[in-house]
Specification:
By secondary structure, the protein is an alpha+beta fold. The protein is built from three helices and six strands; from the N terminus they run αββαββββα.
């Protein structure tokens, strides 16, 4: 089951690496979407709310480039994805500097759908949350 979940998560993340964040077919209709930290921490429920929160967050960056470094199956339902993000931050049309960080996304999968997605801007917080920190 965990390999099937990894394959589903890869199918979600591969378009993100091309800059395509438009698909949500992988999400359970009542998905819990969480920004654990970063610019806009919060929790949203449902695909429409996730889409809105996701889009608002993406507008804070120009040329956002995300690359997967590693897929880490944790158990029968969770897959941790270690990411490297680069781009330019912006606020109200002003350039606020270069983004270059290593983050993590925690996917919870059940019955072929992502039921919960937690995005961590700070990778170390994700590693601590899943018990993988030193």
């Amino acid at each position: 089951m965990s390999q099937e979940n990894v394959e589903l998560v890869k199918a979600v993340c591969t378009p993100w690496e091309r800059g395509d964040f438009s698909s949500f077919e992988w999400a359970h209709p009542e998905i819990e979407f969480v920004f654990a930290d970063g610019l806009t921490p919060g929790t949203w429920t449902g695909v429409a709310a996730m889409n809105k929160a996701w889009r608002e967050n993406l507008t804070a960056f120009e040329g956002l480039d995300v690359k997967v470094e590693q897929y880490v199956p944790l158990d029968s339902e969770r897959v941790l994805v270690l990411m490297h993000n680069t781009g330019r931050g912006k606020a109200s049309g002003f350039d606020v500097g270069h983004l270059d960080n290593r983050s993590a996304n925690l996917f919870h999968v059940r019955d072929g759908k992502v039921t919960r997605l937690v995005l961590y801007f700070e990778r170390q917080r994700a590693l601590e949350a899943v018990g993988l920190s030193d």
